[in-house]
Structure formats: structure tokens, C-alpha cells
Amino acid sequence: MFAIVRTGGKQYRVAAGDKIAVEKLPGEAGETVSLGDVLLAGEGSELQSVEGLIVSAEIIAQAKSEKVIVFKKRRRHNYRRKNGHRQRLTILRITAIGDHKAAPAADAAAQA
Question: Is the pTM of this model over 0.85?
Fold first, then answer.
């Protein structure tokens, strides 16, 4: 089963057992969060109702993304500014979509 969830202004297609990196969410590693803004859900080509559907996820880590360099320059005016930015991310493992839970055997096979 898959679902499309919205968090941090972006949309993600997730299935049970997937790992995704989203905009920072409050919480520590090991805690469970629920993503309630489900836009679409289904199995294969069959769509299901998203009324009251919740996607459960476990926080794996709080991290930072790659550094982005912001460089501004105005020609012939001796104006140069260099800044860097690293976006804060939360890495999630999707544990369940509604009542469909991640299969532990599939999780172990994926890591091997």
C-alpha cells in the first residue's frame, strides 16, 4: 500500500518500510510521529478513501542537508557577499499506513 503525504510544504509518495528525509519535525531519534495530511492512498492502481487515514513514522535522526553556497556580486562596485546554508532535516522510516504495517522480513532483506 502507498500514500502521498504532505509535510513541510512538499509531497512525498511513501510505502511501509520506506525512508524519507523531510523538513525538520520536533522530536528525538526513536520517537514515533504521525503524518495526518494524507492526500492520496491506494494499492496498485486501486485508490482508497483517505478519510481519517494516518501514516505512522519513526524518527531515525535529526540531520542537516548539503551546504548551499549563496554568492552575490555586483560588477565594478567591489561588492561581494558569500553565505552558506544547511537546511535541517528529519529522517523518517515509515512504519505503517493506516492498519498496513511494514513487514519485518522485507525490512531485513532490504538491509542485507
Answer: no
